[in-house]
Amino acid sequence: SAQIGALEVVGGFSGKGATLAEGLLYAGDPANYKRELQRMAALTPAEVQQAMQRWLTRPSYRLAVVPGERTDDGATMGGWGDEGTTPAPAPDARQPVPDVPRSAPREYPPVADVGELTFPGVERAKLDNGITVTLARRTAIPKVSVHLSFDAGFAADGTDAAGTQSLMMDLLEEGTTTRSAVQIAEEQERLGASIGTGSDLDSSSVSLTALTANLTPSLELMADMVRNPAFKPEDVARVKDQRLADIAQEKASPFGLATRALRPILYGPAHPYGTVGGLGEESVISALTPEAISAEHRRWLRPDLASITVVGDIAMEKLLPQLNATFGHWPGIRSMPPRKDLTVATPAPKRRLVVIDRPNSPQSVLVFGRLLPLTGKQQGQEALDLANEVIGDGFLSRLNLDLREDKGWSYGVGSQIMRNQGPEALLVYTQVQSDRT
């Protein structure tokens, strides 16, 4: 499944180019990959076991390194052995810094015309229970990607439950009422499928990538994970401990400290976007119970908040029956769906400097942010994206060329426009040597 998926791209280490070249180099036939896939598909368990017994039972070379008592200090470990007795000469601070030779300036190549772009046709339909389905058909390889999205995300946590939504989504992979986490993983391997969960500021989602031939059982597994999570106490306790460790690690990171502080400053503590981020707060995570997580699941993961996007080698007339069988009969909830109020007023824009003291840091982390007078998707935003790419989003951007290539103060600078359903924001971030802050 992974090898087939890699063939969709042209370059890379396993795309079309590399695959054809390897076939020509090792087998004298660019189309050798077809024989390899056919051979792989025809293998029996007995043949695999026979190969394992033949190759993995041969004598192996083992090297054990057992550290003993250290007799040398750091100055004499490695090198020629005389580093401790021959110190490096001290630089003469009075001597001028020699000029670094620079190559002759080169002209940029002319900008060529962009060729005509070809996009797949987009089809739309609805399941029996009203879930919208969007299909973009691509027939290059026999695989299908399914993205089930819910109108939830970090913003669904509100101002007092940061981290609840993302923790709940993580727990979908820990088992259902009929399958354990190990059984879910084994079934994905058997089908050649990959299922993942996640959440961002505006949405919570479950994604599936599967071979077209195995789409039906793969969708059944995906639906079981979405609709019937177990939320066993032992799984909840373990994932909570992992999350608390992640939060501690984030707080130990300079960038983590900066990003946790930025959103409440930009959006204000009353706005759904004004949380510390998806990992959440320790107090919230520690207090969550299996019952509370189950209630969060019932509240937000429901058909009237869901949409499905599909890309791959399948026609709509074959796709809809499979989706209806797994998600089309998912009963709705009579109560009104929960609502995120993204119209809450944000703080008036003003210049503000926030310093987080982190003693002995070798570098300074700088994060700049400002809200934009934009919400959701609007016409003409492509021009703003292009301007952002020129200024800070890319290696050849002006900021990166200035701070990294010209001055040498930073390893890199980045900028991004946060595309949200609600107020959007522009972020610029970098790390610089402390004396150039």
Give a description of the structure:
This protein is an alpha+beta fold. It has 3 domains: 1-41, no CATH class; 122-328, Cytochrome Bc1 Complex, Chain A, domain 1 (2-Layer Sandwich); 363-433, Cytochrome Bc1 Complex, Chain A, domain 1 (2-Layer Sandwich). The protein has helices at 2-6, 16-27, 32-42, 45-55, 164-171, 181-191, 215-227, 233-252, 254-267, 282-287, 290-300, 316-328, 381-391, 398-406; strands spanning 122-126, 132-137, 143-150, 194-199, 204-211, 306-312, 363-375, 410-418, 423-433. The strands form 2 sheets. It has a 6-stranded mixed beta sheet. It starts with a helix and ends with a strand. 22% of the residues are buried. The mean pLDDT is 91.
Topology:
Blueprint: H1 2-6, H2 16-27, H3 32-42, H4 45-55, E1 122-126, E2 132-137, E3 143-150, H5 164-171, H6 181-191, E4 194-199, E5 204-211, H7 215-227, H8 233-252, H9 254-267, H10 282-287, H11 290-300, E6 306-312, H12 316-328, E7 363-375, H13 381-391, H14 398-406, E8 410-418, E9 423-433
Parallel strand pairs: 2-6
Antiparallel strand pairs: 1-2, 3-5, 3-6, 4-5, 7-9, 8-9
Helix pairs in contact: 5-11, 7-12, 8-9
Number of domains: 3
Return Rg in Å. 28 Å
CATH architecture of the largest domain: 2-Layer Sandwich
CATH superfamily of the largest domain: Metalloenzyme, LuxS/M16 peptidase-like
* N-C termini distance: 48 Å
